[in-house]
Amino acid sequence: MTSLSSLLKNSHTTCPTTYSTFLLGHRGARGERLENSREGFIYTHRLSHHSQDRLVGIEFDVQLTQDGKLVVFHDDTMLRLFSRQSRIDQCTAAEIQCLSGGAIMLLEEMPEVLVGYRHIELEIKTHNRTNYSRLLQALKQCLSQSTFKQLPITLTSFDVQLLDYLQADCLLSTFKRGLLVEPISSQSNPALMSTGQLLSHTIDTALRLQCEAVGLYYLLFNESFVKQCRRYGLSTTAWTVNDTDYAKYLIKLGVNYLITDYPSVFLNNEILKIR
């Protein structure tokens, strides 16, 4: 296995270092405040104002509630964060906000904590129970508002079927879109057993879906992939990067955005000044 020191050394000699890399807060700043919460978003927004143009945005998740609202939440259930067994798609938006003590926001409330950012990644969560028609309707209802149209939002998802639907929709296709990718085991997809095959397939799929961005698990990135993305005009985002030493390698590769749980640590470390 190639060591991190070797990666840094090789990237320093073979990769151009003229590209800028910026930080995005993961679900706000989930390592420093409650994830996907009003408190966390306000905290990250304040950090960004003093970041010297290094923390330029956030990533957050939305999913559909029982009553057709989009709630800003990552997990299928409220168990991990609020010790409740309640499943998000079986609760109304009002019930979720009540159970969370008002900490969790609806997508329609988000513009107030997003104004001023240069890059926003809005991940749309789906599962095997997703009603795509209701999900698309809810997205259009929110994103058709002028407050959202003025924001630099990229709609992201692991769900290729959903990205197909977004591409075909007159309103939703006006937003930038990003394909998210995680390591695939040979058990789940025998056709994609190697990292090289996965990365090649990622670029092909993103281009077919007319995506402008790709977001990968951070350990998947290599020099060849970043160069190929740049060649085809695809922005690159690495998630979730909490190791500042590994971040240096990704910066030298020229990855555009690093999503981190600990934005204040990265800002204090000043690693984004590495070029």
Question: How would you explain this protein's 3D organization?
Answer:
The protein is an alpha/beta fold and 275 residues long. The chain has one domain: Phosphatidylinositol (PI) phosphodiesterase (TIM Barrel). 37% of the residues lie in helices and 17% in strands. The chain is built from 12 helices and 9 strands. An 8-stranded parallel β-barrel has the order 1-2-4-5-6-7-8-9, surrounded by 6 helices. Strand 2 and strand 3 form a beta hairpin. Helix 1 runs parallel beside helix 11. About 2% of the residues have low confidence.
Summarize the structure.
The protein is of the alpha/beta class. It contains 12 helices and 9 strands.
Sheet bearing the most strands, described? Answer: 8 strands, parallel, barrel
Number of strands: 9
- The CATH topology: TIM Barrel
Number of domains: 1
Could you state the order of secondary-structure elements as H and E? HEHEEHHHEHHEHEHEHEHEH
CATH superfamily caption: Phosphatidylinositol (PI) phosphodiesterase
Lateral arrangement of strands in the main beta sheet:
1-2-4-5-6-7-8-9
Oligomer state equals single chain
| CATH class designation | Alpha Beta
For the residues shown, what is the average pLDDT?
A: 91
Given the structure, what is the number of helices?
Answer: 12
Helix content: 25-40%
What is the percentage of strand-forming residues?
15-25%
Low-confidence stretches at least 5 residues in length (pLDDT < 50)? Answer: 12-17
Distance between the termini: 26 Å
> Nearest-angstrom radius of gyration?
18 Å
